[in-house]
Amino acid sequence: QVRLVESGGGLVQPGGSLRLSCAASGIRFSYYTMAWYRQAPGKQREQVARITSGSSTNYVDSVKGRFTISRDNAKNTVYLQMNSLKPEDTAVYYCNADGLTNYWGQGTQVTVSS
Fold first, then answer.
1. Apex CA 46: angle with CA 7 and CA 98, to 5°?
2. Cα dihedral 10→11→14→19 (10° resolution)
3. Which one-letter DSSP state was computed for residue 87?
4. Across the chain, what does the average pLDDT equal?
5. For residue 110, what pLDDT band results from cuts at 50, 70 and 90?
6. I need a surface site. Which of 16, 21, 74, 77 has the fewest CB within 10 A?
7. How far apart are CA 79 and CA 50, in angstroms?
8. Which residues of the chain form beta strands (DSSP E)?
9. What is the pLDDT of residue 100?
10. Per-residue pLDDT for 21 more than 90?
11. Span 40-72, pLDDT tens digits
């Protein structure tokens, strides 16, 4: 059974930081490209960052320089370090594993508000 379990979301003030984690089980984690997506109310889900099995990374323009995606294959975990958070970063953040099959986590809420 494949599971992707996100954690680390919450309420933070503008300019603050959060670190999201996604623990994977049931897949050969190191073989998968991992990504973080987000979906704000009334908007389409967008890919925020991705990291390949070879640890190449890509980011959506709106988070470049503020967010960092990383992975620990020994722990089957992918991370998203989010700094200098803005109210427009408020969304549900989802973990995604992209391989022969595509898997999703249940999401974690991130709210940036004063």
1. 70
2. -20
3. G
4. 97
5. very high
6. 74
7. 10
8. 3-7, 10-12, 18-25, 33-39, 46-51, 57-59, 67-72, 77-82, 91-98, 102-104, 108-112
9. 83
10. yes
11. 999 999 999 999 999 999 999 999 999 999 999
Q: Classify the phi-psi angles of 17: left when phi > 0, otherwise alpha if psi is within -120 to 50, otherwise beta.
A: beta
Q: What is the pLDDT of residues 78-99, one digit of tens each?
A: 999 999 999 999 999 999 999 8
112: which residues sit within 8 A by CB, 6+ positions away? 12, 13, 14, 16, 85, 86, 87, 88, 89, 90
Cβ-Cβ contacts under 8 Å for 45 (sequence gap 6 or more): 37, 38, 39, 94
φ/ψ (deg, to 5) at 13: -80, 155
DSSP letter for each residue of 58-76 = EE-GGGTTTEEEEEETTTT
The total number of residues shown for the chain amounts to 114
CA pair distance 108, 8, nearest whole angstrom: 7
> Considering only CA atoms, which of 97, 74, 73 is closest in space to residue 3?
97
